[in-house]
Design brief:
The structure holds two protein chains of two kinds. By secondary structure, chain A is α+β, with helices and mostly antiparallel strands. Chain A has helices at residues 48-56, 104-114, 119-132, 148-160, 178-195, 206-212, 230-235, 240-246, 359-369, and strands at 3-16, 20-33, 37-41, 63-68, 71-75, 80-81, 89-92, 166-170, 198-203, 215-220, 223-228, 250-257, 260-263, 282-287, 292-295, 302-305, 308-311, 316-322, 325-331, 342-347, 351-354. In chain A, strands 7-8-9-3-10-11 form a six-stranded mixed beta sheet, sandwiched between helices. The model of chain A has no long low-confidence stretch (mean pLDDT 88). Chain B folds into two domains: 24-51 and 346-571, Orthogonal Bundle (MetI-like fold), CATH 1.10.3720; 78-239 and 282-292 and 300-338, MetI-like (MetI-like fold, Orthogonal Bundle). In chain B, α6 (120-131) runs parallel beside α12 (231-237), α21 crosses α22 and α22 (482-510) packs antiparallel against α25. The radius of gyration of chain B is 25 Å and the shape is globular. The chains are: A alpha+beta, B mainly alpha.
Chain lengths: 370, 571
Amino acid sequence: MADQIILRNVTKRFTTKTLGDIVAVDNFNLNVREGECFSFLGPSGCGKSTTLRMIAGFEDLTEGEIELCGRLVSSKKKNLYVPPEERGLGMVFQAFAVWPHMNVYENVAFPLRIQKINKTDIDKRVREALKHTSLTGLENVFPGDLSGGQQQRIALARAIVTNPKVMLLDEPLSNLDPKLRETMRFEIKALQRKFNFTIIFVTHDQSEAMAISDRMMVCDMGKIMQIDTPENLYNKPCNRFVHNFLGESTFISVIVKDGKVYAKGDMTQPLDLAIPQDAAQEMVVATRPNEIALTGVSDGGYKTHIEKRIFLTDRTEYLVPVGEQVVKIQTPHRVHFAEGEACCVRFLEPMWYPADDGKADQERARRQLV
Amino acid sequence: MSRNMHADMAAVDGRRRINMDKLMTVICFILLFIIVIIPIFMIIYNAFFFEGKFELDMFVTQLTDSKNLAAMWNTLKIALFATVFGTIMGVFYAWLLGRSDIPCKGLMRALFSIPYMFPPFLGAMAWDLLLNGRSGYLNRFLVSTFGLNGMPFNINSIAGIVFVEVSYYFPFVFMQVVSALERMDPTLEECARIAGAKQSTVIWKITLPLVKPAISAGALLILTTSLAHFGVPSILGYAQGIYTLPTRIYAVIYNSGGSFDGIRQGAALSVMLVVVVAIALVLQKKILSTGNYDIIKGKSMRPTLIKLRAAKYPLLLVAVFTLVLIVVVPLVMIVLISFIKAYGLPLKPGNFTTAQYVKVFKASGTMDSIRNSLFVSITAGVVCMFLGTLVAYVVQKIRPKGKEALEVISVLPYSIPGTVLSIGVILAWSGSLGIKLYNTIWIILVAYMARYLSFSMKTSSAALLQVHSSLEEAARVCGASHTESLSDVTLPLIRPAMVSGFFLIFLPAMREVTTSILLYGPYTRTLGVQIYSLRDAGMIPQAAALATVAIGIIMLLNAIVTQITKDKKGV
């Protein structure tokens, strides 16, 4: 598979009146392959939408270059900028952006009319697009009279009708209810299989991104954190942020002393963990609530007790003190402990990260204000 | 006992909440009946009835009079051209300042709102001084410089009247469209770019159709204002015998010396004009009928600015030239003339003096006229701001039976000439119905309220159309009562529109001349009337001096209020 979208050293800087310079996108390098479904994932203000808008051509770059389907479309060095209408993209927006003054048919036919295709071909292709988006029969209805889901289908039909090679989806599902979100996700994937386009999918919802993507990019505060498959991202997150963003996480501050690991606040019994080579004295051990083994005292491990037990529909949750922290553990229902009962915990294959200095959170809060 | 009282109060309270909508609707109808319907009824009654009997002769005589027909034809021509050119100009500059990356935007927007403040009849005065077909300063300058045989321009013509009207009426469209553009969801346009449309195609196929409601609301204002306008054609047209219906009506009454017969003839002529305006209204409704949609949803977005690239500086030049032509030139001319020793003297340093200002302020009535204008304009502005919003809310959100009637009634007074409205107000409130306001300031206030109500109604209406009903519903769901959701959600969202509605009334009311020229009494001259009379009496430098003062006052007030309302945010 060839690379279809290439970003080289793409940087975007804004100057705001209140907070001065903000690097919205800091030196992004990434390749999206042909036919791939690639997600940009991150909290608001992370630069994902700005990156998408630069690919679409709505924002110019401060530095770097973008290549689409083997053609350079934005380059600061060569002073090149191809306007959005000449990039041959399909795009679906969060607020649908269906034109209220045109009916369904006119909305979908618009891109073809711009291309000055003859009427019979337009008609054929519009009806085809409407069929694939289950809108047949609604041709003469105005968008204002349709539901959110139907409006989003119009937006989809309008995007696929030109048969673009690349489809940009800017949080297309976030204005829909959850059930519809899932249905639409399947429909988008089905359309992708049928028309064979490359998808860039922008979202802040990690489960949505995981379900739809072949690969994804996690970014935070204008920096790429990690690019990988959903599975690798979940299992081998490169830092605390990615770990936390991709799923429920448990972080334990630990102290490494004399070749042993102690949970902060309890230097009496070490945790049974292999210490990585480059470990500093203070570290953070990260794991997930379902990757902590909860056993009886006789089985060995870190000795503690059950502070609270919560019965949920598909699992049981225990809150267990480890050092000065309280750790959440999820188990199947068959693992049963009573509140106050003594127990042992063991961390299965945790990740090690440097201790947190709190600076990242401050910066994140500052950016939220922008 | 006390328990009963509580129960009663609860019942009253409950009933009030349920009937809040109904109450507002009824209040609207009653107020509009008093302010609008009664004067209009009096006009129609007096046009067709004489001493209690139906009589058509006078009406037919007026209708077939060739002078009146010519005036009607002129009125139509001027209004049509002014609307077309004013709309094009308003939309163009709204787009340029609202959506493009043209430099100095804030400054230019401030400057483009000056034509609002600048009284059109003063503009006409200035252009008459410059381009009068016989003695205009600029004309004489051009003749002597280039050795021409005749005067190159003649502002005392239909084209001249259209030119002056366009330069003061295009802001109606400009302001409406600028605010609609700012509230529009920018992805609607971006989407068309992605679909392959060029910037120019997006403007034609997406942006313009989406702001069509705003355009046609503004265009309607230009059309009805121009149809009813008195000042410009009266100043520029009399010299060449060019009459429009409003100036013809004034002439008929003036020539009859204010007799009842003259007022009746005027009433008959105004019926003709009302018919013309009614046709225009119906046409506008037809054109707008497909435009019922919210272009913003319950979220805010920052519109993207369009890069003009190479066209940036040429377009800036065009905008600056326009500003100079419509703002700077007339203003400078008025100020220069206010300092001249005598009208007609060349504009040389030796001929300047401040004596005109001394004369004006020594004259009786000058300070009175300033006080009167301030009082009437502010009062009318505040009352209409609330009443107009009330009507708009009833029409847009409550949508009772007869809402179309409500809409038409509130727009009607502005659609009829101020002169005619004055006749109606005189007929209604000089004692024939038991209330006598003639020769007091209150009769001017009543006339202003009727005349300017549609301004605030239209702006509030356009803003309410943008406030999706879900926003108010969300407040109701959060536990707010109907009143609370109105005051905490809807009103704050449309507050900027209400404030601009106030200015739409306050500023033209400050410079008003059409209505007050028939209503003023010995102690109730307005600023406009005072200037008009001075000019009419041939004291042109004095008129210019008072005009300079008037413009100064209006600009100062505007600057103060802009400063006050600067930080307020809304839709």
